[in-house]
Hints:
Layout: H1 2-5, H2 13-36, H3 41-64, H4 74-103, H5 108-131
Helix pairs in contact: 2-3, 3-4, 4-5
Amino acid sequence: MRIILAPFLDRRFPRYLLASVGALAVDIAIFMALLAAGVGAVPAAATGYALGILTHWFLSSRAVFIDSVAANGRRRSWQKALFVTSALLGLAITTSIVAVGEAIGIDPRLAKLVAVGASFVATWLMRRHIVFRAATVPG
Length: 139
């Protein structure tokens, strides 16, 4: 059980949670605004998530993983590429869950809520263990 909970006991987890809340606020605001404007649920979810990604990089690199952000140059570019990869994983999870929810008649807001939880766990684990781990950044 301790092995499962260890990533969530990391001292950076509360900051990551707050950064995620900030990025989620951007994501949900865009999602809801686009739904209100008549945009379909899947493109609205993808657009909201994409803008949340930008917000999350800014917050994660400046407030969460401060001690493991690569310096400018090749290492930083690699880290950004890994961050985008983690975000694309989250985006795939988000859009898939919303699409399945829509296909089976679930309210897109409820599907989005489920997607938020699944995406959060997947991206936290990838960012903690891969993106902001110095050993994965080529020199």
